[in-house]
Amino acid sequence: MKIKAVVFDYGQVISLPHDPKVMDEFSKRAGAEREMFESLYWSYRGEYDRGTLSPGTYFKNILSSLKVSMKDEEIDEMIEIDHKSWSNINPETIKLIEDVKKAGLLLGILSNMPPDFLVWAKKIIPVFSLPHVGVYSCEVNHIKPEKAIYQKLLSLLGVEAYETVFFDDLPVNVKGARDLGIEAFLWKDPENARRELSALHLVL
After folding, report:
1. What is the pLDDT of residues 43-73, one digit of tens each?
2. What is the H or E stretch that residue 183 is in?
C-alpha cells in the first residue's frame, strides 16, 4: 500500500480546541442555561455547515428554540464571536501539514464549514492557501459523515481510498471515512499523528 494523500479536518485539528468560554458568553447573552445553548448550537450546526442556513438564521433558530429574541446587531456580534472562536490555529499541526507537503504528498483539508466562515477565514488564516485540495461542506452541500463528501474528496485528489490518510476529531467522521476504505484516524495531537503516519512508512 502506497499512501499518496494526507487530509486533515479543520475544526479542533488544524484549529485549537474550541474555547469553552465562548459557550459561556453565548448563554449569558441569551439568558439561557449553558448546556441548553450548547446543545442547540450543535444540533443546528449541520445545516449551517451544509450552507442551507445563513449565519443569522442559524443563531435565530437557536434563540427561537430558547424562546429568546435579540436584535440583529446583537446576533451579528455573536456571529463575529463564533468566527473568531474557530480561528486559533495549532502551530504544531501547521508544521505537520507543511512537512506532509514537503514530503511530496498530496495535501487536503476536508471540513464541515459554513460559507460565511470560509470566506472570512480564507482572507485571514494562511493555512487555507496550503492544501492541494480543499473540500468544504458548504461548497458541496454535503456534510461529514455523508458518503458523498468523501467521494468528492477522493475525486478531486485523484487517488483511491486506500491511498489516502484522513485525520478527524470526531469518531463518527472517522468511521464514515473508514467505511469507504480510507485510512482514517481519530485526531489526538500532532505528535500522535506523526507516529501514525510513520507506522504507514511515511517519512516526513
Report:
1. 999 999 999 999 999 999 999 999 999 999 9
2. strand 183-186
55-65 helix and 34-43 helix, angle to the nearest 10 degrees = 140
Instruction: Assign domain 5-16+87-199 to its CATH architecture.
Output: 3-Layer(aba) Sandwich (3.40)
Judge whether 137 and 160 are in contact, CB under 8 Å. no
Where do the structural domains in the chain lie, given as residue ranges?
A: 5-16+87-199, 20-85
Say if CB 168 and CB 182 are below 8 A apart: no
The span from the CA of 66 to the CA of 30, in Å, is 8
What is the reported pTM? Answer: 0.95
Measuring CA to CA, which residue among 56, 148, 59 is closest to residue 110?
148
Torsion sign (Cα): 92, 139, 36, 72: positive
| Three-class secondary structure of residue 164 per DSSP | strand
Task: Examine residue 115 and say whether the peptide bond preceding it is cis (omega within 30 degrees of 0).
Answer: no
Structure confidence by residue, pLDDT tens digits, 128-161 = 999 999 999 999 999 999 999 999 999 999 999 9
**CB neighbourhood size of 36 (10 A):** 14
